[in-house]
User: What shape does this take?
Amino acid sequence: MHLSFYSKYPKPNFKKLLHWPKEYWQKNLWHKIVVVVVILLSLIVGTMYGIAQWYIHTEASKPLQLGVSFIPDYSQSLGLDPKANMSALIGIGVKQFRLVSYWSDIEQTKGTYDFSQLDWQFKMAEQAHAKVILSVGLRQPRWPECHPPDWVANEPMSVWQPQLENYMSAVVNRYKNSPSLESYQLENEYFLKGFGDCTDFSRARLVSEYSLVKSLDPNHPIIVGRSNNALGFPIGKPTPDMYSISIYKRVWDAGVTHRYLEYPFPAWFYGFIAGTQLIFGHTNMMIGELQAEAWPPNGQTITETTLAEQNKSLDATRLNARFKYGEATGMRNIDLWGAEYWYYRLVVLHDPSLWNVARQHFEANQ
Assistant: This one.
């Protein structure tokens, strides 16, 4: 019975199989092009995946650091009390904050600094034994990205750059001795020209700012951020202590489809980017912005968008998956983008779903 079963099927012709590539290659030009393209793509993707897996394995033994960006101006724009917002985030286990130092907020009058808002954030972080990544420079997180005070308007760069650096010096000198200060983020996605109300992208200014911060505080690392999904390899100065990358997964495509767009990149793609940076640049990478906030359609603000519409780009299931996606990249330092929004959903919209997911992950990370 055993023999009769196998006798029903023809024996494989291994000799013919070995000759198949040669026979296929001898066909027309298009067949040859297909073969070459398939081989090249296989080699490229295989190499990328191999680097990613090497990086993920290399970093796996390091502790996971979860944090959030926190911007009081944005919290207030959502109708929230910023102090209560930050306190609530600490209450669910957030122990790392990326804070901003908007020039437009702190030096509204030339030569007069008001650090009161940033002071209470640092005090709250210190009391909670939380770490702070302090964003410095002209370009900092959230629209319009560049945040000059009104009195800078229409001044040439030769005038406002020294004024900016005087301001940056005041910021660094004020907070460099804080026990919560972990590092600085210099500018924010500095070379990204397609988003934000910014006009100067000169490398010389970035190098000058980097040298200034290092000279004022050589004891804390400096992070330089790169934009979401941008291919390429950072070259030229400055060479920071660490790079950060922004990862946005589900956005509203206002240009072509006018629909929600889900970027198809697997988590290991970002592991490949980080691994390549580590191999060739000897510099590690963190996730500076992991999208954890709804992306409203048609240029609307969050407060103009219904809860049902917000859920189309981010609901509790997607947020839970986003935490896991970040960890799957292999990067062990992850700041999530949208913590003010979770609190807005909880307090204003009376929807605790996102807040509960965030609480679960931050409490597990303690």
Observations:
- The chain has a mean pLDDT of 92.
